[in-house]
C-alpha cells in the first residue's frame, strides 16, 4: 500500500552514509545523539518542533547539507510525520534508523492536573512515538527495504514513580510495552525495536535544583548523575550491528538507580 512516506522505487541514498532520523534533536539528548551518529558515519536528520534550531545545528554539522539536515516536525501532528520522513528520504536517502527521542517531562500534581496537561504529555511522549514509528515502518515496508532499527525513549520513571509526574511515568511505561509490541510486529521487515530508560541525565542548567540533585545522588550507586554521552553511546550501540540480536529490550542507563535501595543496613547511602 502506498503512503505519503513511500520512497519511490527505493531511491538510493545521496551519499554512502546510512541515514538516521532523530526526533527532538534541537538540543540536549537528541542533539548529542545526532552529533554522535554523524561522527560515526551516519547521515542525520534532526527533527524538532523548533525547526530553526534543528536546522542551525544540522548546518553546524555539515554546511553542505549532504549528510545532515534539520526539519520542523511536531510529533503530535499526525498529518505532518510521513511528509517529513519523505523529505528526509528525498534529501539524504531512505532512513534506516529512527530515534524517538522527542519528549517532555513537566511537573503537575495529580489533583491539580488539567486534562490538557495529561493529554500533552501522553500525546507527545506516547502518541508521538507511535506516529513516528508507524510512518517509519510504513516507509520501509512500502519501499521494500529490509533491516533497520528503532530506539524509543522510556525513562527510569517507567519503573520507579516520582511525585508530580503521573502522566510522564504512565507515558514512559507505555513506551516499554509499545517497544515490545513493535519488536514483534515489525520483525517481518527485519526491523529491530528497542528502548532506553535514562535515569537523571543532566542536560540543561535549569533542569533540577541543587536539593533535588543531592537527594537523588544518594540513590545512585554509580555516585554521579548522567550525562548526554551516557545515553548516545547506548543508542549508537542499539542502532548498530553489534546489537543485531537485541530486540524488544529496554536498557536502563541510570548508574544503578533502578537496581534497588542503595542503602547499607545502617541506613547510609553506598555512594
Ligand atoms: N534528561 C533526563 O534526565 C531524561 C531522563 C529520562 C528520560 N528522558 C527522555 O529523553 C528524551 C529527551 O529528553 P531531554 O532531557 O533531552 O529533553 P529536552 O527538553 O532538553 O529536549 C527535548 C527536545 O524535544 C523537542 N520536543 C518537545 N516536544 C516536541 C514535539 N511535540 N515534537 C518535536 N519535538 C519536540 C524540544 O523542542 C527539545 O528540543 C525525552 O523523551 C525524555 O523523556 C530524559
TrEMBL record:
Residues 18-211 form the Ketoreductase domain. SMART domains: PKS_KR. The keyword Oxidoreductase applies. One of its GO terms (biological process) is fatty acid elongation. GO terms for molecular function: oxidoreductase activity, acting on the CH-OH group of donors, NAD or NADP as acceptor. InterPro entries: KR_dom (IPR057326), NAD(P)-bd_dom_sf (IPR036291), SDR_fam (IPR002347). Pfam families: adh_short_C2. Keywords: Oxidoreductase. The keyword Nucleus does not apply. Gene3D superfamilies: NAD(P)-binding Rossmann-like Domain. Belongs to the short-chain dehydrogenases/reductases (SDR) family. This is 3-oxoacyl-(Acyl-carrier-protein) reductase. It comes from Salipiger bermudensis (strain DSM 26914 / JCM 13377 / KCTC 12554 / HTCC2601) (Pelagibaca bermudensis).
Amino acid at each position: 500500500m502506498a503512503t505519503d512516506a513511500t520512497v519511490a522505487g527505493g531511491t538510493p541514498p545521496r551519499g554512502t552514509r546510512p541515514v538516521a532520523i532523530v526526533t527532538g534533536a534541537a538540543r540536549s539528548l537528541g542533539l548529542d545523539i545526532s552529533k554522535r551518529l554523524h561522527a560515526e558515519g551516519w547521515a542525520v536528520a534532526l527533527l524538532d518542533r523548533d525547526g530553526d534550531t534543528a536546522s542551525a545545528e544540522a548546518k553546524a554539522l555539515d554546511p553542505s547539507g549532504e549528510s545532515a539536515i534539520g526539519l520542523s516536525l511536531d510529533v503530535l501532528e499526525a498529518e505532518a510525520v510521513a511528509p517529513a520522513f519523505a523529505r528526509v528520504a528525498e534529501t539524504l536517502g531512505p532512513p534506516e534508523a529512527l530515534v524517538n527521542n522527542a519528549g517532555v517531562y513537566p511537573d503537575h500534581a495529580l489533583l491539580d492536573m488539567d486534562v490538557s496537561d495529561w493529554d500533552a504529555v501522553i500525546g507527545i511522549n506516547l502518541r508521538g512515538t507511535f506516529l513516528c514509528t508507524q510512518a517509519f515502518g510504513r516507509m520501509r515496508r512500502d519501499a521494500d527495504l529490509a533491516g533497520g532499527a528503532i530506539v524509543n525513549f522510556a525513562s527510569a520513571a517507567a519503573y520507579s514513580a516520582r511525585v508530580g509526574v503521573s502522566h510522564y511515568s504512565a507515558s514512559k511505561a507505555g513506551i516499554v510495552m509499545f517497544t515490545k509490541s513493535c519488536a514483534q510486529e515489525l520483525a517481518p521487515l527485519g526491523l529491530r525495536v528497542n528502548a532506553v530508560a535514562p535515569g537523571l541525565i543532566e542536560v540543561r542548567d535549569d533542569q533540577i535544583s541543587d536539593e533535588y540533585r543531592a537527594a537523588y545522588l544518594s540513590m545512585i550507586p554509580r555516585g554521579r548523575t548522567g550525562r548526554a554521552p551516557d545515553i548516545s553511546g547506548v543508542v549508537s550501540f542499539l542502532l548498530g550491528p553489534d546489537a543485531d540480536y537485541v530486540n524488544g529490550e529496554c536498557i536502563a542507563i541510570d548508574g544503578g538507580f533502578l537496581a534497588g535501595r542503595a542503602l547499607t543496613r545502617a541506613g547510609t547511602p553506598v555512594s
